[in-house]
């Protein structure tokens, strides 16, 4: 037995074998040759390995006979035949499979296409369904910023009922309707059950929803989510629907004024209104009666102003619009009696009888409220720093003011002006909160020369006098899109067209079908 | 593993057997017959030395050629044809060995540990030592001793030795056939040759029995 170190050194053995097999790299091969030249044991090792390897040549070779070849070919031919048979049999199955595969592929492609179209294409119905509550209740949701407004209303009103004709059953119906679409599950059914008129109305709301900014849309969604997830959801929804119902009884001008108020003042105003209504001693006035009252009140005021001493005048001027009535009342205690006299004179016989039926306290309260409601237009200050309000008055409100509150003479005078000048004067009149029938002493003294008509621009910026510019309407007809002024009440509950019919003053809706 | 077009083109150009196999792929029966005739002796010889039985070796060789035919459509010339053929042969031999082991019909000496043991060697030594301890081995006897020595290798060593010695496959090709690394083949072959030398050296030098290694 060979006891050379190679037997115990696998790496050296591997190198010898690889050398014999010619598998060494040239460097390793050269190294091995050097070692072989120097190491007799290694040479002996290599020779013995080579001898043993060469001995394998003694293994007998194998030669197969023809039978092997023949049998193998027969096996292959059989395999080929079987393959052919299998293929032939598989043809219909394969065709069927291919047909099914094509069918499935087509169906899958169609489904995928439909899905892509659904996802990618702007689908109005999908958006409508998704935002249905915000769309349907956009008017009321636009009225407040967060649910704390509703909670304040609810808390401050307490048991005071809302001044609407909404019965308990009506409210329940509205709450039910709200709940129907509050969550997505019932929206499709609700929409399917909508009649044509409802669809048209919904279309209008949908268009209004699309017209507001993305941010506002997002706010409306968040607000709705907050309402429906609030722990006091039922109370919030009832308050909101009551508020909406009451708001719809107000003319657009009052809705606008309410919207302009800060939330806390608005709550206070609304609550006061409801309480006043609940007291049941409110006398509803017609629009004409309101006009007469306004005219009487402002005439009285102008008369008293004319009687002022320079000091009184200064105090009056410095009191600001909101404080002027208080200043007047303090300086001229007789104003109260004069107001009573002129107010009663302005009432129709029927209303005068109603007024006379009230006790003295109720009469005083009624007179004070009339004065305050008429003076409600006064908060529009003209002092520097608040002048931006000048431009905040909406066109709709101006149109209403033009149509409802100006007399025919003033309207004619306004219409005789170029458009931009007329608009400026109209805004001035609106912001002054005064009818231009007075002698204009106050405004002349304050804003311009003595011979300036009340319709003259207050800031002396004469713009656009002369013929209308290109593209302007000739003569600028009545700006109101609503046509002639309606005989709508100024303050208090609006008149009802028919007994039991709920008054509505919804924003105009598009005529196209939904 | 995918084969690049350039590799396929290289083997197609350099190996006539690859070109024959590509004809077989096109259902050319003559090409298959030619391939079979070229390789049948070598395959049967390889399987005979692997499994030790001629009839079983022929059956396995037929199975190998049948698999070549059945695999023709999937054939990609990613190596020499012989490499691909011996890969199939290695798989067939392995399957056969497993099947035989399951049926307890193993006639081969299979030592999975890879360590060389003296059992077949004892038989060879016993056959030789009963004659003349110092005589010159004749050719038949040498053949018998060499067969015993080869049979004494484990399966993997035996396959590597046969491919290297008789099919002239390099370490890289053997590695491909046996799914090993070239370094593993190098190690495998060195151990196989050491084992062969250990068995054969006494006979080659003195014609005497050697001491059987301790287990």
Describe the structure.
The complex is a heterodimer of chains A (514) and B (215). Chain A is mainly alpha-helical. Chain A has helices at residues 10-20, 26-38, 40-55, 66-120, 124-130, 132-136, 138-141, 147-157, 168-182, 187-192, 196-211, 214-229, 233-247, 252-260, 263-279, 287-306, 310-318, 320-331, 334-346, 349-357, 360-375, 389-392, 395-405, 408-415, 419-432, 441-447. Helices cover 66% and strands 0% of the residues of chain A. Chain B starts with a helix and ends in a 10-residue tail after the last helix. Chain B folds into two domains: 5-102, Orthogonal Bundle (Rna Polymerase Sigma Factor, Chain: A); 119-205, Arc Repressor Mutant, subunit A (Orthogonal Bundle). With 215 residues, chain B is mainly alpha-helical. Chain B has ten helices and no strands. Chain A binds chain B through residues 1-2, 7, 10, 13-14, 16-18, 21, 23, 48-49, 51-53, 55-56, 58-64, 68-69, 71-73, 75-77, 79-80, 83, and chain B through 27, 29, 32-33, 36-37, 40-41, 44-45, 48-49, 54, 57-58, 61-62, 65-66, 69-70, 139, 142-143, 146-147, 149-150, 161, 164-166, 170-171, 186-187, 189-191, 193-194, 196-202, 204, 210-211.
The description of the largest β-sheet of chain B is:
none
Helix count from the secondary structure assignment of chain A: 26
The CATH superfamily name of the largest domain in chain B is RNA polymerase sigma factor, region 2, helix turn helix motif
Sketch the topology of chain B as an H/E string, one letter per element. Answer: HHHHHHHHHH
- CATH topological fold name of the largest domain in chain B: Rna Polymerase Sigma Factor, Chain: A
Output mean pLDDT of chain B: 80
